[in-house]
């Protein structure tokens, strides 16, 4: 059986995982740093405010650069596909998504200032084969699997000022953040030399 050495690098700056509380971590709104440096998301695109699941889903998966502003509580009850060159952010501390995000084969995405309450069998946020992603000021809880997973050779990402927690010990997995891939040696070629992720102030 072939054996692969998975080289992953995690930069941790004062990282503390908090499992209680709904508020975002108290701090200034930072600029991106760490491995996701250079990520611009939707850049200077005109902001589009969304208040329904249909509008959020349509804008998140659309082609081109977009800045998507989430207002109120949006109930998707599923994983929302996010594509390249997107900024998805909450308008204020009450902005909430019931569901999660799925990012596959994409690049240059910012997701910030959101409460993400995960329901069903989806991850909170899952990225696969994706690079240049900044997760900032997120409050993610109650996934039945992982809250924020970086897999399948993804990398050059930063996770900053986020909270990961579970409201009940009865949930099956209670996993915070997977870095690497399931599947043992079969995932070695995808992960080797990748998985560069900065975690700070979580």
UniProtKB/TrEMBL annotation:
GO terms for molecular function: pectate lyase activity. Keywords: Lyase, Signal. SUPFAM superfamilies: Pectin lyase-like (SSF51126). It holds the Pfam family Pectate_lyase_4. InterPro entries: Pec_lyase (IPR002022), Pectin_lyas_fold (IPR012334), Pectin_lyase_fold/virulence (IPR011050), PEL (IPR045032). Residues 31-202 form the Pectate lyase domain. The keyword RNA-binding does not apply. Residues 183-202 are annotated as: Disordered. Belongs to the polysaccharide lyase 1 family. This is Pectate lyase domain-containing protein. It comes from Orbilia ellipsospora.
